[in-house]
Amino acid sequence: MNEAKHTSPTTNGSPLDPATGLSGRRITRFLPPAFTHIPVMAEVVTETLSTVPSGPILDATIGGGGHSYEILKSRVDLSVIGIDQDPEALAAAKSKLAGFENRISLIHGRFDDLSVVTKHIGKQKLSGFLFDLGVSSYQLDNPHRGFSFRNDGPLDMRMNPESQITAGKYVNDSSEQELASLLHNYGDERYSKRIAKAIVSMRPIASTKELANIISDAMPARSRRSSGHPARRSFQALRIAVNCEIEILESSIRESIQMLKVGGRGVVLSYHSGEDRIVKRVLRELAGLDTSNSKYHPEVRHEKEILLLARKAQRASSDEISRNPRASSALLRKFEKVSEL
């Protein structure tokens, strides 16, 4: 008797879980995707933190732990406190950083609640911190999380599954004016009014694919021919709104700088012009550069709390972008704390 040769089938690169139903027919269940994320500009982050004093590093958005892995590997005298509001991200980080158990603390929370960090370090100050404001590849590629405009899923977009407000709430309950403002302010969407009008006219909307199609149909034909998906800016805006990313950013950066040692360094990676404008303004202010002056007056300098390590935001190299296209929109700003004010 010949035994059937066992094979592990796949469809479109996704592993399958075959089973047989009561009818005798074959049932195929797709396993959820593994948590994968390529850390953006990891070499730059590690190099920036290479000279900081010994002590704890705050990874305020630890995700899958990619940046923290490189930081911990680079120096044995550094530890990491990692925060994330996504339980799946924390589970992935725990697995990724399994070899550094004695130097890693993982916290389920949002980066604006830094009191949890104080509980871990006491009166000790931070040696450095990292804010990576992007979304992980896993979150984007997993249709069940509702972040993707390419795959069909629920209108969710919550980083923290325990949060109450979903993207569906904004899409189906906001006024046309509120939606247009949200898409313009958080997504830099030039056709925000057209898109908002189309969304309101087609409500209720239940899925990401349905929303993406409505947005695409509302766009002028010439814009649909440009690079990138027509819905990408609108989905970004909804994600930012659902997770209150803009509202909590400034206060969190200021508080983190207060917690830094003199000689400690901070790195912020943003992927949206609205985020970067906030980061730039705060850092210039704390670096003693008055950003409110007009071009007709000389720049006024105040006391410095930090020193900018580069005046302009740094971008990923062309080589990195070719390996990881999602790095193309990244803007990295870095600085060192030089005094206590």
Task: Please tell me about this protein's structure.
This protein is α/β, with parallel strands linked by helices and 341 residues long. The chain has 2 domains: 42-137 and 267-337, Vaccinia Virus protein VP39 (Rossmann fold), CATH 3.40.50.150; 164-242, DNA polymerase, domain 1, CATH 1.10.150.170. 38% of the residues lie in helices and 17% in strands. The chain has helices at 42-48, 66-74, 87-96, 115-121, 137-141, 167-173, 176-187, 192-202, 208-218, 221-224, 232-242, 245-258, 273-286, 318-323; strands at residues 10-11, 14-20, 26-30, 55-59, 78-84, 104-108, 126-132, 260-270, 306-308, 331-337. The strands form 2 sheets. A 7-stranded mixed sheet has the order 6-5-4-7-8-10-9, sandwiched between helices. The chain has a 3-stranded antiparallel sheet with strand order 1-2-3, with no helix packed on it. Helix 1 (42-48) crosses helix 2, helix 7 (176-187) crosses helix 8 (192-202) and helix 8 crosses helix 9. The longest helix is centred in the C-terminal third of the chain and has 14 residues, at 245-258. It is globular. The N and C termini lie far apart (82 Å).
